[in-house]
Amino acid sequence: MKTLKISAPFNNGGFIADRYTCKGPNMFPQISVSEIPAEAAYLAIVVDDPDAPGGAFTHFTAWNVAIGQGAKNHVFEEAWGNKGAGGTGSVFGMTDFGKSGWGGPCPPPGKPHRYFFKIYALKDQIEVQSGSKIELETIVERLAIAKGETVGLYKR
């Protein structure tokens, strides 16, 4: 599988600014994706926190994000994930906050949590019945032609 290059407003392994969390305005961070294979036409994204007390906590899922075949780069603009829909054909799944759209980091006080931003490139749109992270990851892990990941930390 090819590797996507991911850039975010935090370094890989660095701390996420309050702006993107429940402590601030809870904005979806701008994420840039590059080195997208020419045959890709769609992206999917999953953001989760494996350090949550109850197990992995889903903060965001989206799929069928059209990028146009042959696109080498794509930018998820700041606040894109806060909108009710991600644009034509894009679907936002349910988070563990019980809503669709971005739900930023909001861990209990204590040690830092890790937030994995996983992006997948796909040739075709996908069908996700339940909208769950598990179903989405099962499908995209099988069909993705490229994947990229960056990790942000956050502590309250």
> How many strands, what sense, and barrel or not for the largest sheet?
7 strands, mixed
The overall strand count is 10
- Mean pLDDT reading: 93
**How big a fraction of the residues is strand?**
25-35%
Overall shape: it is globular
Number of domains: 1
- The helix fraction, in percent, is under 10%
Q: Report the C-alpha radius of gyration, rounded.
A: 14 Å
Helix segment count? 1
The name of the CATH topology is Phosphatidylethanolamine-binding Protein
Given helix and strand content, the structural type is mainly beta
Uncertain segments: none
Q: Termini separation (Å)?
A: 36 Å
Order of helices and strands: EEEEEEEEEHE
Throw out a few tags for this protein:
about 160 residues, mainly beta, Phosphatidylethanolamine-binding Protein, 7-stranded mixed beta sheet, 3-stranded antiparallel beta sheet, 10 strands, about 5% helix, globular
Account of the protein in words:
The protein is mainly beta. The chain has a single domain, classed as Phosphatidylethanolamine-binding Protein. It is 7% helix and 35% strand. The protein is built from 1 helix and 10 strands; from the N terminus they run βββββββββαβ. It has one helix at 133-143, and strands spanning 2-3, 5-7, 14-15, 31-34, 42-49, 57-66, 73-76, 91-92, 113-122, 146-154. The strands form 2 sheets. Strands 1, 3, 5, 6, 8, 9 and 10 form a 7-stranded mixed β-sheet that branches. The chain has a 3-stranded antiparallel β-sheet with strand order 2-4-7, with no helix packed on it. A hairpin with a 7-residue loop joins β5 (42-49) and β6.
